[in-house]
Amino acid sequence: MLSDTTSRIRTVTTPSQFGGAPCPSLIERKPCDPIDCVVSDWSDWSVCSPIDGSKTRTRTVQVKPTAGGKECPSLIDSSVCSPIDCVVSDWGEWSKCNTDGTKNHTRTVVVMPQYGGHACPPLWETQVCDPVDCVVSDWSRWSSCSPEGRKNRTQMVVSPALYGGLHPPLVDEGVCEAVDCQVSAWSEWSSCLGARANLKRSAFGGQAQLHLEIR
Known about the structure:
Keywords: Disulfide bond, Glycoprotein, Signal. The chain is mainly β and 215 residues long.
């Protein structure tokens, strides 16, 4: 066990005799020189705690203090870990458009946030698809004229409209051009007192013509 004092001794080489002077003290003590505490260097920081985000490091006593030397400093040190923000990947490619006219893309977490770092941004994003107009064929030939003087033509859908795209009409109606009445040349004259007439009806609003001559 260490002591705060040091001592030294001496022995009697010739004892006093015949009234000679007695021997002086054979032991001498004095306080030891102070020895301060000596500690090692700090260890590496520990892994950050997932509970409170702290880290620690330690050191050990190499020489204990004696004789009033300086006491050992703290042997453990704690610190708050630096915040780690969330890190995410780049956005992936857009998906194909869904039936509701939307598309989406995603990204993933590369580094999770820790120790009060910024939270992760959204990992899913949705966007409305661009409208796609209907694609149609060329117009068909005009149909024959109806008795009412109407005609129509049609076109076929090549690819349908998507996501709110435009859809043109597939049927077009028109009015037939008016056809005027036409008559033949006159026939030979009939017998007297007879009458001859020649009539040809019009079509689609054309004007009918009637020629009648009596002799």
